[in-house]
Amino acid sequence: FLHSETHLRGNSALIHLICIGFSLFIGLLSRPGSSLFSWHPFLMTLAFSFLMTEAILVFSPHGSPLKRFPHKVKGGVHWILQCLSVSCAVLGLAAISYNKFLNGKAHFTSWHGLLGLLTVCVVVLQSLAAVPLIYQTLAKGWSLAKLKRYHAASGLVSYLLGSVSLLLGLRSAWFTASVREHTWYLSALCPALSALVIMNQVTRAYVAKKRLQS
Ligand code: HEM
């Protein structure tokens, strides 16, 4: 048991490092501000790899920097990080769309572009659907426990969509031309590993709650 505890703590420390490292790497590579396009990979990685992962890790029983704080504080930090994440995602979408418009290119022609658009729409909806968790009077006839469960499940789906969009972004001509093969594989590992850890965290919390209720 002790062994698996240390193991889990090790995993979450690794995920913090991976998210920060990956975001820094894409930031350095794209040099935000050097062109309108450069904002797209930078803002999207910031939104989905750094901010959204940290927003969910806040609730991790092992890897949360706020482990000893009350649940209310964790909820507040989660809320702020997710607002920042959605803002970056919307700005990142605006940057690439406007860049394509200026260059007279067709929109949403690749799998990355299509899934990316869906991802941004889903995270905006997910955020709006989370408002009743703060203002509970808005959720008439729904118990808070039920709302939280739906929020966690649909939040996990949004996170996985984000991870797949990031991975497809790494397959773009821009990124494959910017890095060598082994760097590409290392980069692709980042969203893949984070997705596994987040999936593990959310399903564990969900399964544990279900057991308590039945
Ligand atoms: C979850 C994160 C991401 C989302 C939601 C996303 C979303 C999008 C969308 C919607 C488009 C199409 C815009 C249009 O057609 O008007 C697009 C294009 C593009 N994205 Fe991303 N993106 C993400 C991450 C990345 C990353 C990390 C990179 C680079 C490493 C990247 C590189 C590109 C490139 C080169 C294009 C233009 C070519 C194309 O349309 O496929 N994206 N992205």
TrEMBL record:
Compartments, record wording: Membrane
E.C. designation(s): 7.2.1.3
Family matches, as InterPro entries: CYB561D1/2, Cyt_b561/ferric_Rdtase_TM
Q: Which UniProt keywords apply?
A: Electron transport, Heme, Iron, Membrane, Metal-binding, Transmembrane, Transmembrane helix, Transport
Bilayer-crossing residues are 12-30, 36-59, 79-98, 110-135, 156-177, 183-202
Cytochrome b561 domain: residues covered: 5-209
Task: Give this protein's Gene Ontology molecular function annotations.
Answer: metal ion binding; transmembrane ascorbate ferrireductase activity; transmembrane monodehydroascorbate reductase activity
Q: Membrane topology for this entry?
A: Multi-pass membrane protein
* Pfam families linked: Cytochrom_B561
Q: What is this protein called?
A: ascorbate ferrireductase (transmembrane)
Q: State the species of origin.
A: Echeneis naucrates
Q: What is the lineage of its organism?
A: Eukaryota, Metazoa, Chordata, Craniata, Vertebrata
Please state the gene responsible for encoding this protein: cyb561d2
